[in-house]
Design goal:
By secondary structure, the protein is an all-alpha fold. The chain contains nine helices and no strands. The two termini are about 45 Å apart.
Length: about 240
């Protein structure tokens, strides 16, 4: 007859193995591989979109134009809602605001003596900004032009700096929250805030007529690549340091 201990499904798992993890560490390896796969997939999508935009693929250009035309008509007809979008894009979800949030997170980590992680967040933010500007210069895409603009913007259009910076910042902050054990309702609120910010800033850029839809999508894709690469590289460094 089997003893109660041998019958229990967790009897052969060591006490240091977290619930749901395989004793041989396969779950840990799978978790570690997830950011690598994410980075690979989104890098491929980013490259495909970049080439499509650079070549001026007609179906994409037509879709871009149709979307911004419809939104611009609405923005001209609804000045109050347009002003709300300008406040959101220029203050709440502005790249400077996002970078200040990342900087605050870096300072907080530094004060907690998590120096490597603090530097990782700061460097990732800087790399994201440099990549964004580099791709803008490489593609050199013009922004939408209007006889009656409701807003203005500088630099080339692709990718959207607002969209990319929001993804990088929110992605890093979500990662840090998860690292600190955020679960349940707290994690749900974090996800909701990040989702609203990323989607919201993309909408404001389109509604105000300063970006094409493919610019926003390009910013989102590149932002995910940067965060996934940062998570992957940090885990490897942490592993090599024995953490």
């Amino acid at each position: 007859m089997s003893s109660p201990h041998s019958a229990h499904p967790d009897a052969n798992r060591t006490k240091d193995t977290p619930p749901g993890s395989a004793p041989d560490g396969r779950s840990s390896r799978t978790a570690a591989a997830t950011p690598v796969r994410t980075c690979t997939v989104f890098a491929g999508l980013s490259a495909l979109l970049l080439v499509t935009v650079a070549l001026g693929w007609s179906p994409l250009m037509s879709l871009d134009r149709a979307v911004v035309n419809a939104l611009h008509d609405s923005a001209v007809a609804e000045p109050t809602f347009t002003q709300v979008n300008r406040v959101l894009t220029d203050w709440v979800w502005d790249p400077v605001t996002m970078r200040l949030l990342a900087a605050a997170a870096s300072v907080w980590l530094w004060l907690r003596r998590e120096r490597v992680l603090a530097l990782w967040v700061a460097v990732t933010t800087a790399v994201g900004t440099a990549l964004q500007q580099g791709v803008k210069a490489l593609v050199g895409r013009e922004r939408p032009q209007w006889p009656d603009p409701v807003d203005s913007a500088h630099y080339a259009a692709f990718p959207s700096g607002h969209a990319m910076t929001a993804v990088v910042t929110c992605g890093l902050l979500l990662w840090l929250c998860r690292q600190r054990g955020a679960t349940g309702r707290t994690w749900a609120w974090c996800l909701a805030a990040a989702g609203v910010s990323v989607a919201g800033v993309g909408f404001t850029r389109l509604y105000l007529g300063v970006h094409w839809p493919s610019d926003v999508v390009g910013g989102w894709l590149l932002g995910v690549c940067v965060v996934a690469l940062a998570v992957t590289s940090y885990r490897r460094v942490a592993l090599s340091r024995g953490h």
